[in-house]
Amino acid sequence: MTDQPTQDQQPAQGYAPAAYPQQPGQPQQASYPPPGFPGQAAPSEPWGPLANWGTRVAASLLDGLLSLVGFVFYVVGIPLIVAGSPRNSFDTTTGTYETTRAAHTGLLVLGFVFIGLGIVAIVAIHLWNRVFRMGRTGQSVGKRVMGIRLVEEHTGRPMGAGMCFVREIAHTLDQFFYLGYLWPLWDPKRQTFADKILSTVVVEVPKS
Fold this sequence. Notes:
Blueprint: H1 53-67, H2 71-84, E1 87-91, E2 96-101, H3 105-137, H4 141-146, E3 148-152, H5 161-174, H6 179-182, H7 193-198, E4 200-204
Antiparallel strand pairs: 1-2, 3-4
C-alpha cells in the first residue's frame, strides 16, 4: 500500500491562493483608476475615440456657414426695401416733414419677399443639415468634413431626426455664458449639457 503524502509533503509548485467569494455586506473592491480619473485618457468604449473640442468647434462653424447661404436673400432684399421706401425731408420754414419721394410698392413687396425667403432658407438648411441628415447618419456637413459623428451613448448609433431636433433645442442651455459649449474641455466623456441630457457623445470616424 502506497503511503499518501501528508499535507506538509504536498508539492509547492503551481500553488495559488483560493479565490473566496465576496461576503455579503462587504464593499466591492475598487478598480484603479476609475473612469475619468485625472490624467487618464477619456473613456471611449463602446463608441470609439472621442472627438476633441477643437474639431467639434470647427464642425459647428462649418455648419453655421452653410446655414448662412440663406443670408444671400437678405443681401438682395434689404436694398430693394431701401430703394422702394418713401423719402421725407424736413422743411425748416414750416417745421414739418414733406414727402420728396413716393413709395415704390413693387420694390417694397419684392424686398420683403426676398427677406422672407432668406428666413425660410436659413431654417430649412439648418433643419436638413443638423436634424434630418445628422439624425439619420450621425453627421452634419461640418461633422462629415471634420471626420466626426454624433451617436447615442448606450448604443453607438445615430439618434434619429426627432431626438436630434430635441438636442438642438437643448443647446439653449449650452448658450448660457457658453459654459455648456466649453464643458467638453474637462468632461470625461467630452459632453456638452445637451449631450448629457440626451445621452449622446461625439466620436471620431474610423479611417478606412
